[in-house]
Amino acid sequence: MRWMRRRCVSANACGMTEKTVLIFENSEDEDLKFRIQPSDRDFVIPPLGRLGLRFSRKSDEQQTDRHHIDWSRHGLSIWCDDQDLEIDIVAPTAFERVSWLVCVAYGWCGSFFDGKMQKAEDYLPKTGVVTAQDYQAAVFKAEGASLDGEPFEGDAKLKSDGSYIIDLFRKEFGSDAVPAEEIHNGSGRPFDVR
């Protein structure tokens, strides 16, 4: 689990209001339960999903803002008593899910070439159609592997993981081919315009 904090200012009829945005990201492979107290509102952050809370900061004349976050293996709970609290949950895209699974489960995370991190998406077209086989080749190329017969130290791994990568692509996208835009358009952050 990871969280970020940012501030934003929005206009209202009375002037400017400062808002705080807290973003929680579920980096685990299981749903994360999220409860907001004192209202007892429950939410679920899916694996790789993000939950954003946006709330008003109290003015200097009002009491101090107090927020309490409790994190355990059972979930996450936060105390925030702002009546105008806004919540936005952003689920991961199919490409974010498949890339995460390929990296975490099989270690195909990309590598460094010429001082730059290389990822599968760097080797996929930005327009047109991307197939499961295109994705598999891009995953291997990002690792420095070649599928055109050149020797590679992970040849046995290529054979064993190759069909898994294709099957995983098909499962996550529900198809053998998708528009390239689906690969390159990430899910974004909570409260971003999508």
Describe this structure in a few short sentences.
The protein has helices at residues 94-106, 132-142, 155-173, 180-184, and strands spanning 2-12, 15-25, 32-37, 41-45, 50-56, 68-72, 75-79, 86-90, 111-113, 116-118, 129-131, 177-179. The chain is α+β, with helices and mostly antiparallel strands and 194 residues long.
Secondary-structure content class: alpha+beta
Q: What is the molecular shape?
A: elongated
Instruction: Enumerate the strands of the largest sheet in spatial order, edge to edge or round the barrel.
Output: 1-2-5-8
Rg result: 21 Å
Share of helix, binned: 10-25%
Query: What is the residue-averaged pLDDT?
Result: 81
The beta-strand count equals 12
How do the SSEs run, as a string of H and E?
Answer: EEEEEEEEHEEEHHEH
How would you characterize the largest beta sheet?
Answer: 4 strands, antiparallel
Strand content: 25-35%
Termini separation comes to 23 Å
Poorly predicted tracts of residues: 7-16
**How many helices?**
4
List the helices and strands and how they pair.
Elements (H helix, E strand, L loop, with lengths): L1 E11 L2 E11 L6 E6 L3 E5 L4 E7 L11 E5 L2 E5 L6 E5 L3 H13 L4 E3 L2 E3 L10 E3 H11 L12 H19 L3 E3 H5 L10
Parallel strand pairs: 3-7
Antiparallel strand pairs: 1-2, 2-5, 3-4, 5-8, 6-7, 9-10, 11-12
